[in-house]
Design goal:
The chain has about 500 residues and is mostly helical. The chain has two domains: about 190 residues, Fumarase/aspartase (N-terminal domain) (Fumarase C, Chain B, domain 1, Orthogonal Bundle); about 290 residues, Fumarase C, Chain A, domain 2. It has 20 helices and eleven strands. The strands form five sheets. Strands 4-6-7 form a three-stranded antiparallel sheet. It has a two-stranded parallel sheet with strand order 1-2.
């Protein structure tokens, strides 16, 4: 495992590092680049020539030249006026990611910000001081202006923050951390709030969870395939070589690995079934297409991790170039695609849950309807399927792409926006919904497998079944399935069931 202390240089941050980051600092190279960039801004700020955001107003007010004596007030006013976040608070882990990602973007040395300001952001992360950031108010174009403004407010000792699990005024949080309110210098407010770190933080969280979700979906499919005594033929390596999508090939390989040496699969080799429903037979094609879409999103996110996304950017030769690297379109499209792909994993999972509840009889072994013997008096697993269906239908709404929308702002100066922040926040809910549906399928598949004993399944599935039974027991009669679903959700989100499976049979693709 890589060190939990990350030395950031703006060039080499990886998704894997973000899984373990506990402390951050700047590389010596990053410090030198930040200081050199700052010297350029200080030289230009008091000159006669207008430079956007350095000695001018913002947005539609870009033509207004600001007097040198008002440059600090300009930056303070920028933060106060842009801190218009509304809605629910962003989760604290997302805010911590925002802090880390903002430091890494500034570490590239093209922002004209002072080293003291970046060091303060590092202190926020290291001391677990998280500003309260609101989830709505950004249109994802001139950076995530409103969310990032709330991040900067706390640096100034304004607004509220979380420290060690306690909400308090930002001024008090600074005091407890031994920090003083920061006085913004020329261009610093703009450098801090121009950027994509709000939507990128959500993107990082989603793609890291999606890696676990994709493998868990394959485990679900394999487990339900065994429980329903489905055919292994659709997962034949030769078949998938004829349509060689990388995701499809990987999923088929995973299902073959999970079902290796299964007594259940051998027990019905000569049964009367000809073909299984699509939710079993086409799992490689559906899961695989989703994986390929996730790979596209991952590539975009990995580029954005080490990108300079504020405006204007300050170059080594003293050029200050105003452009549009803050525009969230690359992320917006990727996050909308990721939401659609993940929603599909939940959709096909719910169909497999429905199959499990229908009962089956192969080789004289009965799988009872609703996965319970004494139904009538008991409703069995009818309602967990309802819950899964509700989440799948909600995902259909949430998967509508936000990036197809735009609305002009700043009196038309910012006439096309990405809405990437909306793509990000609704994706966060999609991921949770998908994890829950997969948790329900694992619970139902484990219940179904119990009726096939003493036959055993593939080694990987046996390990998964054992891990499930550590948190949820077999249900002989109705009980509070809410508690079972929550226990299964925690199991899925922790990744423990996957780790145990992979320790037993080797890494899944």
């Amino acid at each position: 495992m890589e060190s939990a202390h990350l030395v950031l240089d703006g060039e080499s941050l990886s998704l894997r590092q973000l899984n373990v980051a506990e402390r951050v600092s700047l590389s010596e190279t990053a410090k030198r680049k930040i200081q050199a960039s700052r010297q350029v801004v200080e030289r230009l700020a008091c000159g006669e020539k207008a430079y956007y955001g350095v000695n001018t107003g913002f947005g539609v007010l870009a033509r207004r030249k600001i007097a040198p004596t008002d440059l600090e007030k300009l930056q303070e006013n920028l933060i106060l006026s842009h801190a218009v976040g509304v809605g629910d608070l962003a989760p604290e882990p997302i805010v911590r990611l925002m802090l880390l990602l903002k430091v890494n973007a500034l570490a590239k040395g093209y922002s004209g910000i002072s080293l003291e300001a970046v060091d303060m952001l590092c202190e926020f992360f290291n001391q677990r001081l998280s500003p309260l950031v609101y989830s709505q108010g950004s249109v994802g174009a001139s950076g995530d202006l409103a969310p990032l403004a709330h991040l900067v407010l706390a640096m100034m000792g304004i607004g509220e923050a979380m420290w060690r699990g306690e909400k308090m005024p930002a001024s008090e949080a600074l005091k407890r951390c031994g920090l003083s309110p920061y006085k913004l210098k020329s261009k610093e407010g703009l450098a801090l709030i121009n950027g994509t770190q709000f939507m990128l933080a959500y993107a990082v969280d989603a793609i890291l969870r999606a890696d676990v979700v994709a493998k868990t979906a394959d485990l679900c499919a394999a487990m339900t395939l065994e429980a329903m005594r489905g055919s292994g033929a659709p997962f034949d390596e030769r078949l998938h070589a004829l349509r060689p999508y990388p995701g499809q090939i990987a999923v088929a390989e995973n299902i073959r690995l999970l079902t290796t040496d299964s007594e259940i699969m051998r027990s019905h080799k000569d049964c009367q079934k000809v073909q299984d429903p699509y939710s079993l037979r086409c799992a490689p094609q559906v899961h695989g297409a989703c994986r390929d879409a996730m790979d596209y999103a991952r590539r975009v996110i990995e580029i954005e991790l080490n990108a300079a996304t504020d405006n204007p950017l300050v170059f080594e030769n003293g050029d200050v170039i105003s452009g549009g690297n803050f525009h969230g379109e690359p992320l917006a499209l990727a996050l909308d695609t990721l939401a659609i792909a993940l929603a599909e994993l939940a959709s096909i999972s719910e169909r497999r849950i429905y199959l499990l509840l229908g009962g089956d009889s192969v080789g004289g072994v009965d799988l009872p309807k609703l996965l319970m013997r004494d139904t009538g008096l008991n409703s069995g697993f009818m309602l967990p399927q309802y819950a899964a269906a509700a989440l799948v239908s909600e995902n259909k709404i949430l998967a509508h792409p936000a990036s197809v929308d735009s609305i002009p702002t700043s009196l038309g100066q910012e006439d096309h926006v990405s809405m990437g922040s909306v793509s990000a926040t609704k994706l966060h809910r999609v991921v949770q919904n998908v994890e829950t549906v997969l948790a329900i399928e694992l619970m139902c598949a484990a219940q179904a497998m119990d009726f096939l004993r003493p036959l055993t399944s593939g080694k990987g599935i046996e390990v998964a079944h054992a891990e499930i039974r550590k948190v949820v027991s077999h249900a002989e009669s109705d009980r509070l399935f809410h508690d079972d679903i929550q226990a299964m959700l925690k199991l899925v989100q922790s990744g423990r069931v996957l780790r145990c499976v992979e320790q037993a049979i080797g890494a899944l693709k």
